[in-house]
Automatic annotation (TrEMBL):
PANTHER family: BLR5498 PROTEIN (PTHR30137:SF8), LUCIFERASE-LIKE MONOOXYGENASE (PTHR30137). Pfam families: Bac_luciferase (PF00296). The keyword Oxidoreductase applies. It comes from the Bacteria. This is LLM class flavin-dependent oxidoreductase. It comes from Planococcus shenhongbingii.
Length: 365
């Protein structure tokens, strides 16, 4: 593997592999076509120089991916340098041993590029599917996370818990190429989750899908405070941001193109959750206004939003979800291209200049 230049902020894309109808034709592509396009998107992102590609987990007929590790293994052979992560793995209902071994296998296949973002997930269909109760929602996550971290650190593990059989001097194989798999916790908005991530010294991936990003600043502060108090190096406490994204040459074009797909996305997601609300164009324009966290616009507009959040959070990673609501693949391709050719250079220049100014001030003082 050839060395890759490090961007100021890692920029990547992720998919939840939703299979939604086209808002213009009403037609829905097959799971096979959706899977082929996802793997092709990873290949394009790798060739374009993006840093990371993420794949989510759902257990519903209107999503194409239930096993991120299997899909990421296919991507490992189609790509050369891009990091490959789950986004997220529903840790509450996954067996931690199987999760670790699957991603250690991805790490071997990919040459050391696998990561895990562990979370609770937005849906609960996996609980009855795998024999768990939603009454144990929080306890399951805590116990499984504790075991996953032990598996990541040790080749031979003894462990005892409430929800799975005990391990006694169990050999955990294969081992990853990386000394330890990078593990992040997906945080939606609870201080408890942010504090837990900090205490454990793992990365925190913030899902910011709209509104004023300032409201997430307390979570970042809690995370870093808890991490430092637990003895972790500030450099080890990494924050990532994920968000819905759509790019075009101008902000007006991006708004016009994306609105039908974004409204379509929330229409069927709200139906999945038992709600019948629809998004008006006015609602969409408010959600995508310059001060919000919805990354819709020209490259300049999206860079401004990322930089504003960088000032707030000091995050080191941004993952864009660009394929929701039935967005056709040629538009997904264009978004990947614009991220690579327009967004990344602008970010590197802006953040690089900021870092240089900080260094100059230190040297003068």
């Amino acid at each position: 593997m050839t060395a890759k230049k490090q961007n100021s902020i890692e920029i990547g894309v992720y998919t939840l592999a939703d299979i939604g109808p086209d808002p213009f034709t009403g037609k829905t592509i097959s799971a096979k076509q959706r899977m082929d396009e996802i793997i092709q998107a990873a290949k394009l992102a790798d060739e374009a120089g993006l840093d990371i590609f993420g794949v989510g987990e759902h257990h519903r007929l209107d999503y194409a991916v239930s096993s991120p590790a299997v899909v990421l293994s296919a991507m490992a052979y189609a790509t050369k340098q891009i990091k490959l992560t789950s986004a997220t793995s529903v840790l509450s209902t996954l067996d931690p041993v199987r999760l670790y071994e699957d991603f250690a296998t991805v790490d071997l296949i990919s040459g050391g590029r696998a990561e895990i973002i562990a979370g609770r997930g937005a849906f609960v269909e996996s609980f009855p599917l795998f024999g768990y109760s939603t009454n144990d929602y929080n306890e399951l996550f805590s116990e499984h996370l504790d075991l996953l971290l032990k598996l990541n650190e040790n080749e031979i593990v003894s462990w005892n818990g409430k929800f799975r059989s005990a391990l006694t001097e169990a050999e955990i194989a294969p081992r990853s190429i990386q000394k330890q798999l990078p593990i992040w916790i997906g945080v939606g908005g609870t201080p408890e989750s942010a504090e837990r991530a900090g205490k454990l010294g793992v990365g925190m991936a913030l899902a910011i899908l709209g509104g004023d990003p300032l409201r997430f600043k307390p979570l970042v502060d809690i995370y870093r405070k808890a991490g430092i108090e637990a003895g972790h190096s500030p450099d080890a406490l990494k924050v990532g941001v994920t968000g819905h994204t759509y790019l075009a040459e101008t902000t007006e074009q991006a708004m016009d193109e994306f609105y039908p797909y974004y409204a379509n996305y929330w229409n069927y997601v709200n139906r999945q959750r038992g709600m019948g609300t629809r998004m008006s164009r006015g609602d969409f324009e408010q959600l995508a206004s310059p001060e919000t966290a919805l990354f819709v616009g020209s490259p300049e507009q999206v860079v401004e939003k990322i930089l504003r959040q960088h000032e707030l959070f000091g995050h080191t990673r941004f993952l864009a979800q660009v394929d929701i609501g039935g967005v056709p693949f040629h538009k997904v391709e264009r978004n990947i291209e614009l991220l690579a050719t327009e967004v990344i250079p602008r970010l590197n220049k802006a953040i690089g200049n900021d870092e240089k100014q900080d260094t100059d001030l230190i040297s003068i003082s």
